[in-house]
Fold:
Amino acid sequence: MNLISYKYLAEVYSSFPVVGISELFYLIKLKHNITEYIFDNNSLSLDEIYLYFGKPEDIVRSYFSITDIDYIIKKMQIRRFIRNSIVIFSLIATVAFFSFQLYTIKMHEISKPHLHSYEYSSTERKSSS
Structure:
């Protein structure tokens, strides 16, 4: 496979809203078909691939036309659940991190005045002597 076919497959891959096992098998078959087409036709450009196989959006539409809608909806719901879970976990981790940092700063400030009062009283004694 050459660079043009990789570019075409990358465009098709990025056009899929969800890529699961069945989509990967579909893309593998498409890759095999493109490889055969390139082998049969030596001179090849991206426009020729578009003419023969269609635009990436057309490939995705044709895949969805033969795929069960319930399967696609389920995959998209799972993707949304995972994305939302990652966002919520990230927010909780960020809040926990900054809470710990704030707690550490507060603990340091609580112990800090004792050190300053000790230093102040020791410098006070030196100046009074």
Q: What stands out?
A: The first helix runs from residue 3 to 15. The chain has a mean pLDDT of 83.
